[in-house]
Amino acid sequence: MVVIATFATGCLRKEVPEGKGSLRIIYLGKNGFLISAYDGTPVSIVIDPFLPISEEERSKLPYQIPVSPSSLSESDLVLVSAECHEETLKAISKGEKPMFILPENCEVIPEERVLRPRELKLEELSLELKDIRSERGLGYWIRVKGIEILYLGTLNYSEELEGITCDLAIVSLTGDLKEKAKVISLVNPRTVIPCGFYTREDALEFYEYVMDFNPESEIVLLKPGEEYRYPE
């Protein structure tokens, strides 16, 4: 794990508000994450998993798959924003527990396991969720154990981001990095975690843009399989 914001001279770091829980975040590679919270009733959320089972498909990736899809079959919720990887989702769905929130064009899971709300509230898990839409795709705002997460994925600006705030933002470093940084400044997170197939040069360029617009944010780089505890 690399926290590149600490390289900045005089970089400010937002304080963590009292009364919030803590998260364990594991980067699954590409745009995928496993987010777990253990304060009170445990809850685990999988986002955009891409975990090929076939050796042929795995060999094309620039990293080793950190977990098997079946190991995620006891998660509470699986969110998909863009790429609907059928092999991965079907393997996770072999567990009886996970429910799925999928784009309308993703039809690989039986409908009785799929939730399609714009907003969702599960009080027993201390979980709230709403989707964020634009012409470029789909993102998710999640509040779990009092911590607000914005998963932008490949999403750029959307009018639905107006008024949204978050503690933690996850963003794919694809497309216009300056526009991505402007979105980060709009939602003002304490921590930003990039994802996708990016180079260190991409990350440093993005970091410079974020520091221009929102110098209080820190940027945490994770390799597939690495974890981050929020707040650290």
Question: How do the strands and helices of this protein lay out in sequence?
Answer:
Layout: E1 2-3, E2 23-29, E3 32-37, E4 43-47, H1 55-58, E5 77-79, H2 86-92, E6 99-101, E7 114-115, E8 119-122, E9 127-134, E10 137-144, E11 147-153, E12 168-172, H3 177-187, E13 191-195, H4 200-213, E14 218-221, E15 227-230
Parallel strand pairs: 4-5, 5-6, 6-7, 11-12, 12-13, 13-14
Antiparallel strand pairs: 1-14, 2-3, 2-15, 3-4, 8-9, 9-10, 10-11
Structural features, described:
With 232 residues, the protein is α/β, with parallel strands linked by helices. It has a single domain (2-230), classed as 4-Layer Sandwich (Metallo-beta-lactamase, Chain A), CATH 3.60.15. Helix content is 16%, strand content 31%. The protein is built from four helices and 15 strands. It has helices at 55-58, 86-92, 177-187, 200-213; strands spanning 2-3, 23-29, 32-37, 43-47, 77-79, 99-101, 114-115, 119-122, 127-134, 137-144, 147-153, 168-172, 191-195, 218-221, 227-230. Strand 3 and strand 4 form a beta hairpin. Helix 3 packs across helix 4 (200-213). It starts with a strand and ends with a strand.
